[in-house]
Design a protein that fits this description.
With 220 residues, this protein is mainly beta. It has a single domain (2-218), classed as Porin, CATH 2.40.160.190. It has one helix at residues 2-27; strands at 31-36, 39-45, 51-56, 61-68, 73-78, 83-88, 94-99, 102-104, 107-109, 115-118, 124-129, 132-138, 142-152, 171-178, 183-191, 197-204, 210-218. A 15-stranded antiparallel β-sheet has the order 8-7-6-5-4-3-2-1-17-16-15-14-13-12-11, with no helix packed on it. The chain is globular. 13% of the residues are buried.
Length: 220
């Protein structure tokens, strides 16, 4: 009898340990902390690796996330208790925001899964190559992008547990040209021992020139 009790206890403890290890494995390589200049954001996840909440450096709530698999809804609540409710399509991408019971701010996607346009935009054409967005063209505005095609993007929404806005460019952004080609942002990176981005530097070709620094810490 004692042996049976001991075996049962070991099974329970083993099961509990497996659950903890499973949760830990789902967090692996997800972003734990992001520092942009002096602003810090902490990221927390549920047992399925989905973003559950974000906090500031003093651990004040920024946003809390709730998911409903049956109704395909996502509710985001901020620290003022204001709510945003989004509906997702079969791929899990957000296709519209709910305003009461009315659909608003509709989002459209390319067959490839890249975000194409929203309801309020007059025109947006997305060109992509090798899994990267190459340009976005509006009726009166255009953005052009180049990439480090030998480096993978490890700081995108997927690494923050919230890849809900369509496909993400596969590689690291190298440069961005915007404001009708008059402004350029260039990107440089540092990496940790697992080839994940540890620091990102964004240099804006403005007058005067400005630089943004981002630091990333990951769950192991």
């Amino acid at each position: 009898m004692k042996n049976l009790i001991l075996i049962a206890l070991l099974v329970v403890l083993s099961s509990h340990g497996c659950k903890k290890d499973s949760h830990k494995s789902k967090l692996a390589d997800l972003i734990k902390m992001e520092i942009i200049d002096s602003d810090t954001t902490f990221y927390f996840y549920d047992d399925r690796g989905r973003l559950s909440k974000t906090e500031e450096k003093n651990h004040t709530l920024i946003n809390q996330y709730e998911y409903s698999d049956t109704s395909h809804l996502i509710k985001i609540t901020n620290n003022k208790n204001e709510e945003l409710i989004y509906h997702t399509n079969q791929l899990g991408f957000i296709d519209y925001k709910l305003n009461g019971t009315t659909a608003a701010d509709t989002f459209y996607y390319e067959p490839s899964g890249f975000l194409k346009k929203t309801k309020d935009e007059k025109l947006l054409i997305v060109y992509f190559r090798y899994g990267n967005v190459k340009s976005r063209i509006y009726s009166d505005y255009q953005e052009e992008y180049t990439y480090y095609e030998d480096k993978l993007n490890t700081t995108n929404d997927r690494q923050k547990g919230f890849d809900r806005w369509g496909m993400i460019s596969r590689n690291l952004l190298k440069s961005e040209t915007f404001d009708k080609g008059t402004k350029i942002a260039t990107y440089n990176y540092e990496f940790d021992s697992k080839s994940r981005i540890s620091k990102k530097y964004v240099k804006y070709d403005t007058s005067p020139v400005s630089t943004l620094q981002c630091t990333y810490v990951y769950y192991e």
